[in-house]
Amino acid sequence: MLLAIDCGNTNTVFSIWDGREFLCTLRTSTHHSRTADAYFTWYATLVKHYGIEAEITDVVISSTVPRVVFNLRVFADRFFGCRPLVVGKPDCLLPFPPRVDEGTQVGPDRLVNTAGAFDRHGGDLIVVDFGTATTFDVVAHDGAYVGGVISPGVNLSLEALHLAAAALPHVDISKPQKVIGTNTVECIQSGVFWGYVGLVREVCERIRGEYGAPMKIVGTGGLAPLFQQSAQLFDIFEDDLTMHGLTVIHRYNKENGSQ
Fold first, then answer.
1. How confident is the model at residue 23 (pLDDT cuts 50, 70, 90)?
2. Is residue 109 annotated as a catalytic residue, yes or no?
């Protein structure tokens, strides 16, 4: 079985793939100092709790935090006896190499989202990922990543507002009942929620205009359901797009001799 690991700036997600479906998905906060032993203790405890019997034979990793990759490599080698495939490393083949400026390093998360979205929906896509950053990935007709947009994430914006303005409280994001807030919390929630609705709509509209062809918008990431239910921003919503993309890249490497 395959263990797919997606390490983001805020959370790290482990999913067990049996070739047909994900048996379970486990989530923990991202810490660069977490050791291989600590990862395994956490992982083994939860797998036992959920009653999952999985013999892991392969591990694939996507990480936007380079400092955690070493301990995840040790984790895979020590406890599963395998050399993990790490997206973005030279030995990891991509179904369709990105077409960007020479010397540009594309984030592994964006490569994985591109692979997953193309596998499910074909090309000519905009993938909007609500993570620590809100990213827009443009997927060409042939499945290649050809560029995009990076904006501050929703929670990052809320935290920055709280830290920079001493009088403003920290609030959780939700759809406000009305646009005009009558107290501080409602004002912040309205500004952030409707501000991001406007951001997504405007950026996607401009991408479509520049791209010059019809495009579908695929939404993913932790806060995507809130915006989809409230504002219908996406043509398609995928809650497991990144993990699916990891299985696509792993399969491609298996079939083409990298693993």
1. very high
2. yes
